[in-house]
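tl;dr need the bound structure. longer version: we got a ligand (6-O-phosphono-beta-D-glucopyranose) that a collaborator sent over and nobodys looked at where it sits. i said id run it. heres the input, straight from their email, havent touched it
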Amino acid sequence: MGDQFRIRELSATPQIDLPSDTEHPGRVAGPCVFVLFGAAGDLTKRKLAPALFNLAKARLLSDNFAVIGVSVDDLSLEDFRRQVSSFLPAGPDSTRALEWFQTRLFYERGDFADPNTFAKLRERLAAIDTEQHTEGNYLFYLATAPRFFSQIVQQLGAAALSRQENGRWRRVVIEKPFGHDLESAQALNRDIKSVLQENQIYRIDHYLGKETVQNIMVFRFDNAIFEPIWNRRYIDHVQITNAETVGVEQRGGYFDTAGTLRDMVPNHVMQLLSLTAMESPVSFQADAVRNEQAKVLHSIQPLSSDDVLQRSVRGQYGPGVMDGKNVSAYRAEPGVAAESRTETFVALKLNIDNWRWAGVPFYFRTGKRLTQRHTEIAIQFKRTPFELFRNAPLHKLHTNTLVIQVQPVEAISLSFGAKIPGPLLRVGSVDMSFEYSRYFGADAYTGYEVLLYDCMIGDATLFQRADMVEAGWRVVDPVMDVWRVLPPRKFPNYASGSWGPVEADQLLQLDGRQWRRIEP
Ligand code: BG6
């Protein structure tokens, strides 16, 4: 905290008017079968199985519900049920829900390239419809490697599993990465749209499952006081930080072909940026919201080659010390090439060409093996028009900053100047802050619950439309082009456990600004 003094919020018991559950009962999702391709994979284990189970516990799934796992692994029904159950949060209050959930799990072994897999799946689905009264509604979740996305969708079409008729719905959820550049994303969109209507496609970005990310819209558009100042007249610039402490773990093989730019920017970072910068939608209907998000993404000023050189920074982590332990360099991670030039850190300055944001830079940085796990959006307001207290000793020159903290702590805080108590006029910076967990309790959810539930009820608001995905790639494509022809000269260029390469600091210093200091 240095010499900056802060007054922590003192109020004892948070007060909030919460709607009671009886006022707003959750709408139970209708009958359906959740078909999970890639059922033996990591995502199923870490997120999907626990999220479905949490929905079951919250009684938001229909009694007429079933899951069919599909993968190449040779598992019996018992093996599959045992495997899935081992991923679920156990507890004395879960016994009944566990039994309910387990009896609705089924398994189908098969190769995604083999039409026979889909013929068998179709028979199995018909049998489940009869036994479980799932009414022919199917949600196909593609938790597989991206190379299977198009193939699975084509196979679903060929097996007549994608057609919606007689009131039955068929929806397909596609995980990221959606393409590896603009051209491949457009090709994938073309492929899947040759089989599916846009309203059957749910392109998932798990950042939209995070409470604080969803709250950006409520914060901006349900409070009259922020909107008038949310523009170039009052805001100096915006900083988005998405810092991870983890390295590439066991995903070196995938990551070394992707890099941080592809892995984080067209999707997660663009979601944070579009929700921060979009205009108010006319309603909370899926397309009304997504139209505004797409519009702002399309307003991002395209980067020329010169811009890329001046406004982008890439980095790769070397060895370092984290939590008192030595950690190895990216190039020493399993699955990573010894001379790899893949970036594990990106910083970029973007401008948005519209009336609201003209002249307000959006800076972001995202990277692995950084000092601290921390994701936030910081809105940095302009200085006062003249400095009335210029002769008062300032503990630190400050401007108002509004910080939307996404993780690990979910919070919103506003800093402002205040008089330090005492006979002398001294000015310091204080915080007003709101923490989710203090008001609403700890959140035991994975973040996928809301997304899976929304797919089942047919609400696509929190999913990316084709034009949004393509707009994200349009921003990063020029960066990839320049980086490809100019390989990095001095990788690794930041130590594990630091805040990234010095060039990221210089990016802001050149504009007379600096990254917000993030406190542990
Ligand atoms: C994933 C990326 O989409 O998001 C990972 O592929 C990254 O590389 C992860 O670690 C970050 O997600 P979160 O929710 O931990 O911020």
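gonna send this back to them w/ a short note. The first strand starts at residue 32 and ends at 37.
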